[in-house]
Automatic annotation (TrEMBL):
Residues 9-66 form the HTH lysR-type domain. It holds the Pfam family LysR_substrate. It comes from Brevundimonas subvibrioides. One of its GO terms (molecular function) is DNA-binding transcription factor activity. This is HTH lysR-type domain-containing protein. Belongs to the LysR transcriptional regulatory family. Gene3D superfamilies: Periplasmic binding protein-like II (3.40.190.10), Winged helix-like DNA-binding domain superfamily/Winged helix DNA-binding domain (1.10.10.10).
Length: 312
């Protein structure tokens, strides 16, 4: 059956076929559908033309399905059920009973701070839900949100494109991390003289620090790049390197690698960590619940001490 034929097959015809098949009587099929026997008869003429088969043979007390009609009946039932599901109002979201899989994106720096509490909160409120997280670039994340391949992303989303909604979570700045075996990079000269590790998902050895230094007429030596922030901390723990990372991440994890933390000796532009999602999901109650849970976690974390250690 080609597309031209399919366009002739509207749902009303399928409903008439189904009721005629069920009842075996045109009058009863019409009664159930609020149609006259004549309207049912005319619909069957159209169905016979579409399927190139009699479909129903007249008997003294009704009609009898043909072999072709018997073969069509299960498929017609499935098609009508699919159409009913399509127009059925979406069920209200209930965290305690949902088995939905929420698809998130965030880099490891943000995930290490937010995901533990998010998983704990979701496990308590929505025990049958699943949360999957991936780490991809900003552009890939925005494209995935637009396609519907992601539900929610957390990151730095400057100038979001049309169709993407962004809600700020927190303002973030930077910290400098090193292993303590060399003098602290707490002056601009010492900072520039140090060998730097740069976190870069695409391997590009330049970032916001380099942009800031160029404005000051200075340059630093980027000795290597790392694909994520935890790899960067592990590398700095074993080498005489300096890495500049988001402040909350540094204060949360530097001790685990026996690393030291200090403020940058230059003013680096801060950035806004935010949630992003597709505007097409504005009526998604499940996503609204997840965003609310994320906002609660951020608010709770903001009440924890996050200053730089003294004496560094």
């Amino acid at each position: 059956m080609n597309d031209t034929t399919v366009r002739r097959l509207d749902p009303a015809l399928l409903m008439i076929f189904q009721e005629t098949y069920r009842t075996g009587k045109l009058s009863l099929a019409g009664e159930r559908l609020g149609l006259t026997p004549s309207a049912v008869s005319h619909a069957l003429v159209r169905l016979r033309d579409i399927f190139q088969d009699d479909l129903f043979r007249r008997l003294p007390h009704g009609v009898q399905p043909t072999v072709r009609a018997h073969a069509l009946a299960p498929a017609v039932a499935l098609a009508l059920e699919a159409l009913r599901d399509l127009v059925q109002p979406q069920a209200r979201f209930e965290p305690s009973t949902t088995d939905r899989c929420f698809r998130l994106s965030m880099l490891d720096a943000g995930a290490s701070l937010l995901l533990p509490d998010l998983l704990a909160g979701a496990s308590s409120a929505a025990p049958s839900a699943t949360l999957t997280t991936r780490a991809v670039t900003r552009d890939a994340t925005l494209a995935a949100l637009s396609r519907g391949d992601l539900d929610l992303a957390v990151g730095y989303f400057w100038n979001p494109p049309a169709g993407i909604q962004v809600e700020p979570l927190m303002q973030e700045d930077y910290a400098v991390v090193w292993n303590g075996s060399t003098p602290p990079p707490d002056s601009l000269d010492a900072y520039v003289a140090a060998r730097h590790l740069l976190v870069s998902s695409d391997g590009e050895p330049s970032g916001i620090v380099d942009v800031t230094l160029r404005k000051l007429g200075r340059r630093r030596k980027v000795a290597a790049t790392a694909p994520n922030f935890f790899v960067a901390l592990a590398a700095v723990a074993e080498a005489d390197l300096v890495v500049t990372v988001p402040r909350r991440f540094a204060l949360r994890w530097a001790d685990r690698f026996d690393l030291s933390v200090t403020e940058p000796p230059l003013s680096i532009r801060s950035f806004t960590m935010a949630m992003a999602w597709s505007v097409d999901a504005k009526a998604d109650e499940g996503l609204a619940w997840l965003r609310g849970l994320m906002a609660e976690i951020v608010a709770a974390n903001e009440n924890r001490p996050a200053g730089f250690p003294t004496g560094l």
